[in-house]
Amino acid sequence: MTMLTPRTPTKLAPPGKGRRERKAAELESRTRLAGERLAGFSARPGAQVLQDLSATRNGLTHAEAALRLERHGANVVAHERAPRWWVQLAKAFRNPFIAVLVFLAAVMWWQDPADPGVVILSVMVGISGLLRFWQEFRSGRAADALKKLVTTTCAVQRRAGGAGPTTLEVPMDQVVPGDVVKLAAGDLIPADLRLITSKDLMVGQAALSGESLPVAKADAPPRSAGGTPSSEDLGQFETTDPVEADNLCLMGTSVTSGTATGVVVATGADTYFGSMAGSLVGERPQTNFDNGVRKVSLLLIRFMLVMVPVVFAINGLTKGDWDEAFLFGIAVAVGLTPEMLPMVVSANLARGAVAMSRHKVVVKRLNAIQNLGAMDVLCTDKTGTLTEDRIVLDRYLDVHGNEDDEVLEYGYLNSHFQTGLKNLMDQAVINRVNEAEEVVVDARFSMVDEIPFDFARRRMSVVLGRNSIVGGLGRSEHVMITKGAVEEVLDLCTHMTDRGRKVELTDQLRRHVTRIAEDNNRQGLRVLAVATRTMSAPRDTYSIADEDRLTLVGFLAFLDPPKADAARALQALADKGIAVKVVTGDNDLVAARVCADVGIDVGHVVLGAEIDALDDTALRALAARTTVFAKVNPVQKARIVRALQAHGHTVGFLGDGINDAAALRDADVGISVDTAVDIAKESAEIILLEKDLTVLEQGVIQGRTTFGNTIKYIKMTASSNFGNVFSVLVASAFIPFQPMLAIMLLVQNLVYDIAQLATPWDRMDEEYLRRPRNWDSKGIGRFMVCIGPISSIFDIAMFVIMWNVFGANSEAEQALFQSGWFIEGLLSQTLIVHMIRTRKIPFIQSRASWPVMVMTVLAVLTGLYLPFSPLAGSLGFVPLPAGYFPWLIGVLLAYCTLTQLLKTLYIRRFGTWL
């Protein structure tokens, strides 16, 4: 017995590779090894499999099952668990800017434990981290609530000592290798099974393969492609892909019709499903958002590391007070740092998550919102996204390919009168008749006998009594109606119905009708043939031998129809600058047909086998120019995502199957649905409560709004702060006192930043939302250098006014100078928000939302009030003369006018603003 010891590879990729490449290599190695083991079980005769597993058709004893459960462990696969709340809380504070603020607060506390700046910075850090933690914690709980357990038990045959076998309902996690499991319609497959017996078994494998239609499974298929059906289970040599093996049923799939018995050959991590899941836990790869935030953070920190020492040196050399210069340098560092950035980003993302929840979208990781807005390529599966995820009868054709109601009538009679469980195609035929409000034809027939479907014949027949009314007297005759696979039914036909006439099916006509069926197959349709035979000598029972000398009536063609709004949704995404690529495990003909129906330019359909033949560089070029990928496995899906990312795209992946989990984790934003398998929902960052591209479009708009408001705050604050520090450098060089006290700088920043807390509630211009938006650290640096110094021009103008007009030109009058610059600096910072928030003319072509307007007014009033308030003395302010305010208005108007002019020139030069 060699197959009972789990074999899990440990070292699967060269240590020199990056983490993502190692994970991909691990996934590929695990699935390959699991596939090879399962292919071995498929190829061996059933009796040999039972012997290798030390099992019997009667099942294990309870004692044996207990020992194997202890040896192999519970039948569960690795899955991602939400971190403990305290771990999640700690991660919420893991941010480079928070680290800078904590460092600055520590230095300030070291200098003066009573410094109010310590409290201010601590509050900023606390609110930022707690806001992010609460929103992600709440979203995680909502996502967990979406996990609906379909079933917890399965029917297992076990024995008590020497007693006979009994069928028990056993929890799925207690199934062990060697268990004999009984399957029926509606059951989930609890583990990887090798079939022992089966009857009319159809299994839905969409979660693993992406194929929308259920597939037939049997314990005794042909041993080779050219083999003949056999009732003896000799194993299968046709494929090494366990998903395609006819005598294997894999964990994660489900029974749609029929019954079967199978022996468990793998459980938990050793299953084909488990081989994928084991490589999908742990730290996620860096996404577009993570990389963008890191680059912007480093850019702003570099600016701070350059400017702060310069300010410190100039102040120390010109004033001679190095302690005061050090404190002022720390205040400048705070002034340069957009200290509310973590908080504003968290508030932006949290508000986006709340807004998206109204559109039936659950956001598990807040960063995914920005990635959704930056997404310029969406990879999606076909079933349920572009299609309705249901089988319908699309066509009922005569032997020449023309629609014929008689074909529908015969197909309906066959499906309606069969006594076995009706499969999805039988139900589609019945639904079509009902929907078309056809005459109730079954009233003219009575059931005589049936010959059920089996895997070898691939067809089923019913024999009906036809009741004709002639002169008021009834006369009955028996008619056999056969429906099944085209090749098998055609082999039994000697005649065909041609425009109401029964004609001999010659070789030429046989080639003609075969071509009709093949043409429909090439259009992505599943085709069944319908034939009849009027029995010359009616009797009560019939057999397979009677399925002979049939007359071909026509064909039934089925498909999973495109959603009515899929084409509109795809066009809406295209209008937003998002290219949609279909990545499916289904066959290329079906994929091409569906994509063409919803308006996708299909071009060349790339198959999974072609991807395996390419290295990463070649795949990168192929992925960029290909729209539809078919027959792809989980590893290939993940490779496609990485190839697109390497080409510079921000990639989203929408999937709900086991075979989508790897791609969901590798994508910049993984999107799943609440009906998805658990591993898909765990791998995804966004969960749609409806599998609908229209819902996704709303999420994209919200993501771009969120990102726009975030980048708006960064550019406004960073450029303003840069301008302020530039002004401080000039003032420090020429003015014999501090142009503003350190506490004043902190208060100014606090008032301004509180006003910016309304930024998440601002609106974005419609033009901004039309295309994907991404982090551009170079653009932010350029914006700071070009736009920031504008404020310095008017700061220096205010210096001159305070110095010459109001006589604030000595240390005795420095409080007046500082108070005057404080008000001008705060008001210019606050009002310029409306100039920077849009590329249009503010207040005329584009107005901010009412929360932003209210906070602007409050910030202005606060700035004007502080020098006259009871706090003025403790903060170092003095009241300003009335003559100051006309000068202030003139400076602010000139500032806004020049900014608008330079904004126009900047847009012309660089083609962008926000």
Which shape, going by the Cα principal axes? elongated
Overall pLDDT score? 81
Oligomer: single chain
> What is the SS-derived class?
alpha/beta
How far apart the termini lie comes to 67 Å
Secondary structure topology:
Blueprint: H1 19-43, H2 46-52, E1 60-61, H3 62-72, H4 85-92, H5 96-111, H6 116-145, E2 153-159, E3 165-171, E4 180-183, E5 192-204, H7 206-209, E6 215-217, E7 248-249, E8 254-266, H8 272-277, H9 288-319, H10 322-336, H11 341-357, E9 361-363, H12 367-374, E10 377-380, E11 392-397, H13 405-417, H14 424-435, E12 445-451, E13 459-470, E14 473-485, H15 486-490, E15 493-498, E16 501-504, H16 507-522, E17 526-534, E18 550-559, H17 566-575, E19 579-583, H18 588-597, E20 606-607, H19 608-612, H20 616-625, E21 628-630, H21 634-646, E22 651-654, H22 661-666, E23 669-673, H23 678-683, E24 686-688, H24 693-734, H25 742-755, H26 777-805, H27 814-836, H28 850-865, H29 872-875, H30 884-910
Parallel strand pairs: 1-2, 10-19, 10-22, 15-18, 19-21, 20-21, 22-23, 23-24
Antiparallel strand pairs: 2-3, 2-4, 4-8, 5-6, 5-7, 5-8, 9-24, 11-18, 12-13, 13-14, 14-17, 15-16, 17-18
Helix pairs in contact: 4-6, 5-6, 5-10, 6-11, 9-10, 9-24, 9-26, 10-25, 11-24, 12-24, 13-14, 20-21, 24-26, 24-27, 25-27, 25-28, 26-27, 26-30, 27-28, 27-30
